[in-house]
Each structure stands twice: as C-alpha cells, then as structure tokens.
Amino acid sequence: xxxxxxxxxxxxxxxxxxxRDGFAxxxxxxxxxxxxGPLLADVVVPVEYAVKGGQLAADLRRYxxxxxxxxxxxxxxxxxLAVFIRDHxxxxxxxxxxxxGPATAAVVPSGQGRxxxxxxxxxxxxxxxxxxxxxxxxxQVTGRGRGVSVGWLRAAGPVAGADALLVDxxxxxxxxxxxxxxxxxxxxxxxxxxxxxxxxVDPADxxxxxxxxALNA
Length: 217
Ligand SMILES: [Zn+2]
Prior knowledge:
Distance between the termini: 14 Å
Mean pLDDT: 92
Bound molecules: zinc ion
Strand content: 15-25%
Helix content: 25-40%
Number of domains: 1
Number of strands: 6
CATH class: Alpha Beta
CATH architecture: 3-Layer(aba) Sandwich
CATH topology: Rossmann fold
Structural class: alpha/beta
Low-confidence stretches: none
Largest sheet: 4 strands, parallel
Order of helices and strands: HEHHEHEEEHEH
C-alpha cells in the first residue's frame, strides 16, 4: 500500500494497527515507547496488512516452513518487497530522515533462533544492494517476555553512524522488531527504517472492525 496514504480510519500512528477510540498509539506501541523511546525505529512502514486467514498471512507463515509451497510463497513476498521499495523506498528514507538512504540492511531474526540463514535475508538481499548486518540473539538473555527487550539481540557488523534498513516479516505486537531496532541503535546506527511485510490484523479482535471496513471499502 502507499505509505503516504493512511487507511480511511483511525490507526496507530506508529504501526498502523487498530487503536482504541481516542488513542493515537496502540497499547503495544505505547508500552514500547516507554521501554525504549529513542532506541526504537524512526519509522515503521507496513507493506500490507496481513489479515488472519488471508493469502498474505498464509504466505508469511509458509515461506519459512520448508513445506510444500514455501518457495512460491517466498517468491510472492520477494516481488511484493521489491515493488514496494522501488515505488516507495524514497518516501520511506525521507520519513526516516535518511538523506542518502540506508547504508546497511538487517532482518529481524526468529524468536526461537533457527540454524542457518533466515529466509528473509535472501529476500532482502535480492531487493536491495546493501551490505547486510546480522542480528544475533544473546544467549544469556532468555525469555524475552513481552514488549521490547533491549539486549536480546546484538548487531554482528559495524553499523556505527550508519543509517539502517530493518525488515521484518510479520508485525503482531512489534516487540521483536523494535528489539532489533534497539540493537542497531545500541551498536551506533544513526537512523533505523523498519519495513514490515505484513501488519497482522485479527478479524476476531473488535478493535479491528473499523480497519477491516476501511480495507474492504
Ligand atoms: Zn502501534
């Protein structure tokens, strides 16, 4: 979707998720702000909404499953990200105050820590010509708990002074993604632009009703 045009309903001004009437931010973004403030991403940009039960939500689950259809799902996600960066990259870099665009790219690792490279890394590498910075889970930090966990991850490459593109596949609460943004900032990254392939929407959540109406209009 066009990041410069917001949905025709009230959404969280950070993650574009559903919000309670009268609130500018969702509960999770509010908590994250209190936990990590300036360490959070400078801009959060969902490529699309991933409505539970829909095609994008299914692709986001399948592409890293290794099961039938994983390759096709990854190819659809790659096209989606490539087109989004081609059409809206300049807007995202400007929104994050990156005059020259990002100098490095990173992906948010899975919570469990899988062996081998994350399939999202391959997708990002095929979409942007940037060196990638690995984010590694710190073994001593177990049980991330809820919200942002500063110190859960550390950046394995030199990012001091660099502007970074951070990509995550799915945003539910934003805890993992914002923890990754914090790791980049703690390693010295100047600005972090966070692109999320799918912003999760649960139709069973009453707060999603207005958003779903706007999306289906
Ligand atoms: Zn939010």
